[in-house]
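Complex 270.
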Amino acid sequence: MIILKLGGSVITKKEATEPTADYENLDRIAKEIGESSCQKLIIIHGAGSYGHPFAKKYGIGDTSENREDLQRKKRGFCIIQDSVKTLNRIVCEHLRKYGILAVSLQPSSFIITRNTRIYYGNLNLIKKYLYLRFVPVLYGDVVLDLEESIKMAVLSGDQITRYLGEHLKPEKVILGSDVNGIYTKNPKKYPDAQLIDHVSSLDDLEFIEGATTADVTGGMGGKLLELIKLADLGIESEILNAAKPDLIKRALQGERIGTVIKVKEKKIKG
Ligand code: ATP
Ligand code: IPE
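Predicted structure with IPE bound:
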């Protein structure tokens, strides 16, 4: 089984202030997934401009000081939940167009966090869908949080990826982003940044920072932290550029592309 995460920066125009899908990328990626003939697959997608601008505006994840704050946050919660669902429907439509049996699973309906980290998620349905060769499609969403001062949290597709990776033990985790992989520093800001072949710890980077757009879930730094946790459990992942044609298809067919996140190889003496 493979877990494929599609970044919000690839399937939406992430810098847009209004929710805007990138239909060209979506159509091409859906076609590549269909052509890869990958049999057992979970797809997780980011929210991009369907989530982040609203999450910022309504301060989901901030502690609510008073009743008014809380009411506003709750309204924002409803708006975001609806907006990311809209993107998910668009994604699933494209996947079905290329013969993929995409079934939508709304994270906020079966996952709950505690202090913004996933506390519980019922994975039985996902297992059953996989067994029947459906392709479950999940996404970055807003969810309820058990911590009384938080109540509602933004759950990133990256955290869902790590959670499912940990519990379902996929052969491979592939993350499609809008850069070729992990660089020594942000390649969009520093032309001398160098692509790294594999990463085992945050120390492998000169410095890490969030994405350039209004990303409330941590950009590349947040992503890498989730993937290092997965690597520690023995599950390797790879980050590649999904905005470039054919890379998703080739990765699904087993080729190693981009940056691999894996545990440090131990040197054996003697
Ligand atoms: P998400 O689903 O979280 O949006 P994404 O794949 O769309 O995933 P972003 O969160 O937008 O990814 O993060 C990718 C961005 O991180 C890149 O576009 C780049 O500008 C930025 N970035 C910062 N530091 C680095 C780095 N060291 N290497 C690669 N990209 C970096
Ligand atoms: C964020 O999900 C969810 C919301 C803002 C509601 P992601 O963090 O996975 O979204 P992208 O991929 O960064 O756009």
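Residues 67-97 form the longest helix (31 residues).
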